[in-house]
Amino acid sequence: MPVLSAIYRYPVKSVKGLAMSQSEVTPLGLPDDRAWMVTSDEGVMITGRDYPEMVKIETDVDAHSLTLSAPGMPMLSIERSQFSAACDAHVWKDQFGAWTGAHEADAWISDYLGRKARLLYTGDPQRRVRQHPDIPLSFADGYPLLLIGESSRLQLNEWVGRDMDMARFRPNLVVSGAEAFAEDGWKTIRIGNVVFQIDKPCGRCVFTTVDPHTAQKSDDQEPLRTIAKRRKGPEGAEFGQNVLARNAGQIETGMPVEILD
């Protein structure tokens, strides 16, 4: 039986992920996953697609604060309460309310990126999943959770001809012990007492070409070039599955993944 082999969350959109051995999960996803986002003054998202050095920003988060660190930058802790001014935020075609006001964080991010930027906090999310308006959504691209099979990554490595670190693909849930791309055929799975709906494939972008350790884009556009050639579908270059949690519960690595449908 397949097992849950890794759990990741990304407190700030586009920054380095945090590996977790266990986590609560709700329809909103993992706690504080993409709860913060870097934006322009107008609230338009700034991501690693255009600023790959964002993958070198590391975070720590607790019930009260977010801590940022990056090469050449002082460590900075920001209280959640500092995000006290309502503002507009934009993710793709979605416009919704968020929170600003952490001016030290704005200055820190601006210094690191070499351009004026702000750090927004989603708070109690006002945004919803487009195809499922009853489900709340953070600053994630379009879904609360992304699942990828480890065997799928290994198959991609064979196609590309070198190792493609799972961190390139920014999953929340990694499943081992299934055949390559078995997740494409799953509709409903259960991990622990949480039931997940596999909703649609994830279309991939140029961000996958950024090395998560060096922040350098690959000269040969891999692995996106191979994904586009081998995995072309309605969502474009498809790799991984967008997932919805149908209830709240606790998950941990090593748990079996039961295929319900």
From TrEMBL:
InterPro entries: MoCF_Sase_C, MOCOS_middle, Pyrv_Knase-like_insert_dom_sf. Pfam families: MOSC, MOSC_N. Residues 117-260 form the MOSC domain. This is MOSC domain-containing protein. It comes from Silvimonas iriomotensis. The lineage of its organism: Bacteria, Pseudomonadati, Pseudomonadota, Betaproteobacteria, Neisseriales.
